[in-house]
Amino acid sequence: MLQASSEVTFSFKVNGAKRVKVYGSFNSWSKGFLLKRNGNGKWAQTVELQRGRYEYKYLVDGKWKYDSAMPTIDDGLYSRNNVIIVR
């Protein structure tokens, strides 16, 4: 039986960045998705994810960042991750 999946758009506003990727528990933090610059410091990428709860974070020019405007959770390592539930 195939699990249902949904398209999820990850978006992050960060001015002056040269490269933004999103990493997360949806793929064991092993491969990031490159976000595309949309103008005015906005970056976005749509990916297909299976149903579930995922933690994720952005890698902005080599530095880990989370979006304080979205839900977050303590990652247990003195930092925070964003969290999303795909239904």
Descriptive key words:
87 residues; mainly beta; three-stranded antiparallel sheet; 0% helix; six-stranded antiparallel sheet; single chain; 9 strands
Topology:
Layout: E1 5-13, E2 20-24, E3 33-34, E4 36-39, E5 42-50, E6 52-60, E7 63-65, E8 72-74, E9 80-86
Antiparallel strand pairs: 1-5, 2-3, 2-6, 4-5, 6-7, 6-9, 8-9
Structural commentary:
With 87 residues, the protein is mainly beta. The protein has one domain (5-86): Immunoglobulins (Immunoglobulin-like, Sandwich). The protein is built from no helices and 9 strands. Strands 2, 3, 6, 7, 8 and 9 form a 6-stranded antiparallel β-sheet that branches. Strands 1-5-4 form a 3-stranded antiparallel β-sheet, with no helix packed on it. The chain is globular, with a radius of gyration of 13 Å.
Total beta strands: 9
CATH class: Mainly Beta
Distance between the termini: 17 Å
Unreliable residue runs: none
Order of helices and strands: EEEEEEEEE
What structural class do helix, strand and pairing data support?
A: mainly beta
General form? globular
What composes the largest sheet?
6 strands, antiparallel
What kind of oligomer do you see?
Answer: single chain
- Integer average pLDDT: 93
CATH topology: Immunoglobulin-like
Please report the number of helical segments. Answer: 0
CATH architecture designation: Sandwich
Name of the CATH homologous superfamily = Immunoglobulins
What share of the residues does DSSP label as strand, in percent?
A: over 45%
